[in-house]
Amino acid sequence: MKAESLDSKRLAEIAVDALDDLKGQSIRSINVKKLTEITDYMVIATGRSSTHVKALSDEVVRKVKEAGGEVIGVEGKMQSEWVLVDVGDVVVHIMMAPVRALYNLEDLWSFQAAQDTEAESGSA
What we know:
This protein has 124 residues and is α+β, with helices and mostly antiparallel strands. Helices cover 46% and strands 23% of the residues. The protein has a single domain, classed as Beta Polymerase, domain 2, CATH 3.30.460.10. Helix 1 (8-21) packs across helix 2. It is globular.
C-alpha cells in the first residue's frame, strides 16, 4: 500500500501545496502530535466563497490520492462553510472567513502547543 510510505509531515505538505495551488488564504499547518492521538497535523485554510471552499477540498483530495495517500472522509461539502478533509494523520480544515474567525482553531491548537512546550522546558 502506497499510503504507508507517506508520512504525516509529507501528507501535510501535499495538503498545503494543494491549497496554495488554488489560492487558499492564510494557510497554516500545525503539528499537534503531542497534543492528540487523533492526528499529527492540522492544516487550516480560508476560502473566499463556498464554491472556493469546495474547490479547495476537491484539490486536497485529488492531490493526496495522486500521491498515493488515502482519504478517510470529507465532511461539510453540502454547505461548504467549513469542509473537513480527513487523510488520517492529517486533518484539513477549509473554512469561510467568518467561520474561521468564530472557531479560531489555530489559536486554540497553537496555544496548547505553546503550553505543552513551556511545561516540557520547565520540567527539564
